[in-house]
Amino acid sequence: MKYLLIAVSILLSVSLAPANAIGHDYIAEVEALSKKGDTKGAIEVLDKERDFRRAIETDPKFADGYLEYAKFMIKENRPNEAIPLLERARILYTGKATLEQLDSITKLINETKPQADKAIKSFNRSPVYQTAVQLLKQRKVDEALEALNNEIKSEPDHSELYHLRGEIYWATRQFDKALLDAEKTIQYAKNNTSKADGILLRAKAEFYLKRYDDAERDYKESIELESRNHMTYAAYGQFLLDQKRIDESIEICERGRQIAAAYRPAEIFILEMSLSQAYLEKARVEVELKQNEKAESDFKKALELNPTFGEAHLEYGKFLFARGDNEAASVHLEEAIKTPLGLMTPERWREMEELLKKMKSPKEAKP
Fold first, then answer.
1. 273-277, 315-319, 335-339: lowest mean pLDDT where?
2. Which residues neighbour 7 within 8 Å (Cβ) at sequence distance 6 or greater?
3. How far apart are CA 144 and CA 150, in angstroms?
4. Which has the closest alpha carbon to 321: 335, 333, 336, 309?
5. Exposed end of the chain (fewer CB within 10 Å): N or C?
């Protein structure tokens, strides 16, 4: 179980990177055009990129937006970034477009994919990186770490190797080592996306080392460099929640959910879990302040976002029991008790069991 959780944590950080995590860095292109004195060209690239991003982030179901953005990426020689946009467009067009239109998108995907594969292969110079990722998928964390250590000796300037090793150190709570590898990732980063990954890793390590001001500064810098990485918003949201800045946490996680919906819809659950936790914490505060209507609304929001969130079911069940609604309380407590082992402390389990016994006892049916 320990290695499974570690492997999942690492893979979420490195394998589920944003669509542009491998390949062309459009900021670098803008800077290069500016240095050449081609201000008009630089502004045109920047404006187009921002407009396309704004369009699909505002409306994650805007099929035309994804298709036109993908064509822009192909024109800019960024085929690996175009592929996920084309695939998303094809999904959104299904059932709405003609077969001929769908076939044209499929044809464009097939024409672009070889170029994308070539771009990805050229970026990940070290095959050991992919080997380490596969080992992590098999929960072989120690073997993955050993492979990376050996490869770094022969290729000491590969930022992605340091980043992956740093994520392993972070997941295994070796935060000082994670911090060192974050610095190496930043030092050898060849584009802003890789640099943003390193800064995010540094922020996560600083957070656990209780360097809170440094961590927050780095979370913000990572978002400024790469605003499409929903994982950064999730991590920053958790940081804000830990600092008891609940409303700020909700705002950041909502923004991250919007980003995930646009670029990684299959991974939107990551932000929804973070949001669910934030709404639960907000409800707890409102219960303490006796703002019961607000509390109930936020308990419901937490469970809408994550219907299997055992902690939220338990807290909402306690809230309902306290106001005498035993029937509704028992429903939520029965759901809470389904929480998998390891996701709730033994103390919370005992609390659930005792509360259920009280509700089933005629003498103690009332709170």
1. 335-339
2. 136, 137, 139, 141
3. 10
4. 333
5. N
